[in-house]
Amino acid sequence: MTSSTDTIDRFRLDGRVCIVTGALGLLGREHCRALAGAGARVVVADLDESACRDFAASLADELKLDADAAPVALGFDVTAPDEVDDALERCLDATMTVHALVNNAAVNDTVENPDANAELSRFENYPLELWRRSIEVNVTGTFLCSQRFGKVMADQGRGSIVNIGSTYGVSGPDQSLYERPDGSQTFYKTPAYPTTKGAVIQFTRYLAAYWGRSGVRVNTLTPGGVENAQPVHFQSEYGKRTPLGRMANRSELGGALIWLCSDASSYVTGANICVDGGWTAW
To answer: Which of 16, 221, 232, 254 could form a disulfide with 99 if both were Cys (CB 3.0 to 4.6 A apart)?
Structure first.
């Protein structure tokens, strides 16, 4: 018989090495914090290695981590095969192995972007270069990191890959959400992010089927909108479209992420876990 203590222990990540790409972003930092708090040795990965080192040090100090549990900093471009290969080698030199990969790095044309232009963000005018950049980072970057880091996990017969999705990979954007109170609109949700996140969800299913018998589980974690000082009217309109009536707090994804990286979800693969306040339920 399994005790409640045994069940809780299955959520622990002690001794696990978990790499988070896009670790310096709004959610990336929270992903690192949640995993480290559950006992994992986190690899903080983003473009700027110096900034990664600074965040890794601050996280170690915040959580009072011992030296052998201190986060590792890696700076690399997820779209560059040579850099991903080098990052993997440096990761293995520092940690010996990897148990979980969180593919969080992404490009997103957001409503918070002060340079957003309504005409440029319209589908009819959306630049091909921005479309291609999103595909490179959101899809190719996820592919490359999964291929390189995932092979290590497959070879050792154990691992978890968590691809960060989006509700816009499940349902189409409601463009009226981006209207101002006076009816004007300075931003339209662009086509690249929803398209690439839909691709990530399907890529998850592919990898789950491909690597299942190698002991590597692959799932998507799909967040809803996260509160980040958006205009009050935007938050209000978003809340009206969500059963829980509000945007997410940035820390509210941590539980699901820990679960997916831990043995507590040992029979879960190929799933899309929506932590969206019910947005996709309507």
So the answer is: 16
